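Sample pair:
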Amino acid sequence: MEGAMNLLRSWLLNPVFEKIAFVIIGIVAISILTRFIRQSLAGRIESMDSRYRFRKLVNLIGTLVAVILVTVVFSDRLGNLTVAFGVAGAGIAFALQEVIASIAGWVAISFGNFYSVGDRVQLGGISGDVIDIGVFRTTLMETGQWVKADLYNGRIVRVANSFVFKEPVFNYSGDFPFLWDEIIVPVKYGSDCRLARDILQSVANELLGGFVPEAKKTMTDMIKKYRIEEASVEPMVTVIANDNWMEFTVRYVVDYKRRRATKDILFNRILEMFDGSGGRVSFASATFHLVEAPVLNVKLAQGGESRNMPIDKGP
């Protein structure tokens, strides 16, 4: 018993133990302080984006302070551990290749303008809105899959940051927060083609004209930044004729988060305008005409009597 007490006393009086205890207490104090700052000050920030960035900044500062604390406390022993760290680092680097690649991806995302929180992206085949960017993974609120268009499906997906080096990164809301979209309207042959075009063009200008000024301004900024030709952002109507109907296409730019809602508004307005045309413009649809099988005249060999027998159509 006395030997155990002496061993415990020697550990407590050891300078290394004192430094470890000091570091633990310091890290706990830093953690409590950062949590207090996040909870007390973040609630006063109204902007969601600013509040998120403030919390991330507080966490980063707290981590840096903890690292500095450990470095300062054990600075007299770091020199003796250099060789050991070098040998261990080589093995760790080989075993944790994916982790290191994710950290490198985080650095690239932070300084390379790949995407930021709030952007709609596609990473590794997963589409969604970026809700958090961590050191190892990017968190997405997924869209699509069993839900049509660009609506949330409720799944939270975490994608390794290393994907930015392996696969293309599709950003729907980066430098140009608009998408070109189009709807196809089939119009019956015999309808007033000119009136149909005028209706579609007027509806597009009425409902989509609000996106044009901002899209033009953004396109001008992109032309200054990139080697890109100026593209038309005005609503445009084109038509082709096929075997069944006249096919009108309405092409337009729309906010990347409002594609589904915009299509709904467009189609409802077009339906109203076509119904109000007095039958001059009508929607086309595929029509199938079923023809009854012809009667087959069969002559019987024995009596020479002929009978009309219908062809069996089957079930």
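The chain has three domains: 7-111, 119-171, 178-276.
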